[in-house]
Design brief:
homodimer, 60s Ribosomal Protein L30, Chain: A, Phosphoribosyl-aminoimidazole Synthetase, Chain A, domain 2, seven-stranded mixed β-sheet, globular
Amino acid sequence: MNIRDVGERGLIALIHRLQTTPPLGYIGIGDDAAYVPPSATGWLISQDMLVETIHFRWDWMTPEQVGAKAVAVNVSDIAAMGGVPKAILTSLSVPAALRVEAVEDLYRGMTRALDLCGAVLIGGDTVGSPDRLVIDVTVLGHPGPVGPVRRTGARPGDRLVVTGRLGAAHAGLMLLSHGVMWPSHSVHERSVQVAHIAPKARWECGVPIGQAAHALTDISDGLYAEIEELTRFGGIGATLFGEALPIDQATRAVARAFRADPIEYALYGGEDYELLAAIAPSKIAEVMRIATQTGVAITEVGVITDDPGIRLLRDGEEVKLGGEQTFNHFRVDRSS
Amino acid sequence: MNIRDVGERGLIALIHRLQTTPPLGYIGIGDDAAYVPPSATGWLISQDMLVETIHFRWDWMTPEQVGAKAVAVNVSDIAAMGGVPKAILTSLSVPAALRVEAVEDLYRGMTRALDLCGAVLIGGDTVGSPDRLVIDVTVLGHPGPVGPVRRTGARPGDRLVVTGRLGAAHAGLMLLSHGVMWPSHSVHERSVQVAHIAPKARWECGVPIGQAAHALTDISDGLYAEIEELTRFGGIGATLFGEALPIDQATRAVARAFRADPIEYALYGGEDYELLAAIAPSKIAEVMRIATQTGVAITEVGVITDDPGIRLLRDGEEVKLGGEQTFNHFRVDRSS
């Protein structure tokens, strides 16, 4: 049996099974980030790897964009634990034929992304590569005042809120993979291309939303997959309000051009790097005010139910959703 | 200009220049590991990447050996700061055609190596790969009672000590790269093959040697390159005692078979993962006792001088050494 047959989720499940229980005070595999003690002044840690041709392509993105994205996807994991990013380490596997200026630009992109959120580069490793650039970033962050905010903990009746917009990164990916290169002449197309090429991590929202949330995660594999994670334990489920999903005009237009339902982009498209939180009804008003404080849109998109499963309410009808279209790196790899 | 032209050290220097000063209480780029506060209960962090065909080959090593080595090289960096490894995160870029059993064995190898030193796997990332396996491990460790022990800090008159033996991993690499596959029928050959395939990190020596040392590092790029790092600041140098270098019979035999001077293997061969420390003369006896406590040989191999440069004392004659033969991942990459 090959990795192809089990897929990324199967592989993660396998690794999870092989893991020994982490010591008291640690958070191990299974959330957006790990945590090491002591309890008040410990560290959130996460690691995300970007592989040339799988996660980025030089004909789509500049080295500076690749560097900034490598930081953003990691910073997003710290925000997803209700924390503040403080430092990163980067491992680079660099082909000997890569221009030195490309590496400088890559680090410039990382530094700019770090400066935005006040974090610094403190270490890493640099090795050769027979061909492709591989970037692995480890990010360290401080938990917010309420400590690490887990993925689990949502309760029936909690409202589901998301930051920003959904599906745009997938729309951008669709354009790029069909030859509509950055920068497109269309404002709409550029706006979704940017969502894929230069995602904004919601580093400024992690702490305030985390303080009000029962559960918090970021949306890297599409809203559906993340809600699956959020409702994995406790016999709970979710109902989503189809009309409320924040899907912008550009994403809708791209989806229609590819004869797809825009909602599918929002539910199953990858790499939005928005935050998803389960909020007690009494705290919804407080969370909505965070949008004013941060300038980041926050939208109520559903509710946690005591019914397992994920349902979509649309035009007054409820449809049970399946996860077949969940983004799968290995599947994408095979088809490219 | 390509990465090939500047080499790994040039690239690291470039990254170092791009780095902003780390905040107070942090240790940034330039030592065996980074450090994040608070001062007594902070964390040492290091990251090392292994790339298939550059750092390991499936015809030379089993997946379990690759996993164990990925842990060992990282654990070594924590020992090199006088610390104790506690937890790791691993990023894997996995080809879809790799057998699931290979990944299981890889993790089994990691877990066994972690169990040895009492550390645990707490997180990471798993992504696809178009072809090669890439493993990036981040290790977190506690500093010893004297805090992080830096590479710099050696003083004239300090004795240089090393753990274990030198040059064996390079001898093993020479055999493997010339078609003498593991396990060789010769006991000697197997002993150096193992040094390359299954290096032992000196995790048990980091704290006790660190407590007695002015400076401490691990030997991943050959003794010469590490002494260069140790003497980089303060206008100091070193004199090495050629006859004292711990080079075992097997390494000598392999070197001679390849018409090389065994001392070159010890000075310039990579991947020994032994510790190198600068010890005040008054503490040498104490450090030698650590050998009895840990079962790891400790050898005095030289002395720190107030003369810059690195010299080798051999047959009563002093030779000034150069670093031209320093292990260079990019050079190795190009020639393979």
